[in-house]
Known about the structure:
Blueprint: E1 20-23, H1 25-32, E2 46-50, E3 59-61, E4 77-88, E5 91-105, E6 112-117, E7 120-127, E8 146-148, E9 152-154, H2 155-166, H3 205-213
Amino acid sequence: MLAVDPQTVKQAPDLQAFGLTRGTPRLILARFYKNALIDIKLEAPFVLIRVADIPEEGLRIGDVADFPRPFQDAAWTLDNVSLTVDKEGETVFVRGDLAARVPLQCGRCLEPYVVAVRPAVDARFVPSPATRGEERELGADDLETDLYRNGLLDLTALLETETTLALPMKPLCRESCQGLCPVCGGNRNVTGCACETRAPDPRWAALKDWAERTR
């Protein structure tokens, strides 16, 4: 649950003043992103925090129910979330961890499977330069810094980003996956294959070696 004063946290559609609020892009983004291109077809609820309302002791977020639809893809599942949101001046720190399950397709046998990820969250946010009415050149530290706009921090976007970054670059249903037969295309994990394979052309040896390394 959100361990903050109930007066700080609001879920009503009244956007005059809120700490944590739910809504739709049509209700919230249209109000604060007046010059942005808005996809009005997006109707998924998301969670925003008003930075000015973050108390000195910070916010604690530990209930999956606080995120009605944490991911754009409804097939993704948020199993657990434990975050703290702290503020130092205009800089906001979000730390903690989450657990999620994401359906993927194996890169060898092409069968669907579900991967469980538990990314650690350690994010730093600063106001967008456009929000501050200034332009500046990015420094080395800025490459590890995210931005928030109009005093609003989008926690739903953070969950999706952290989960996406935790996904494997080479999805495998299991390390021992035998993949598909290059001759008949059968799944070698399901049934044995008696197909004969010709000796490889030595001219393709370098490419074969690269393919084995990247599997």
